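INFO batch 0412 | record 1 of 1 | parsing
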Amino acid sequence: MTANARPDWRKSSYCGPGEDACVYVAAAPGTLVRVADRADPAHLVMATTHAAWADFVRSVKAGG
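INFO prediction complete | emitting tokens
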């Protein structure tokens, strides 16, 4: 990612009451997905691979 590029943060559609109860996700150029858990998505909580994130999302959607 270049110094001027900013992640395109997306807010979960399963947010709880208030902005602080949301998860934010941004796919970055390359191999990482970034995840933040507060209203300020610049506060990075974790980064993972696209494949691992896709596995996680499939598991959650399947009720796992």
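INFO post-check: Residues 50-61 form the longest helix (12 residues).
INFO record closed
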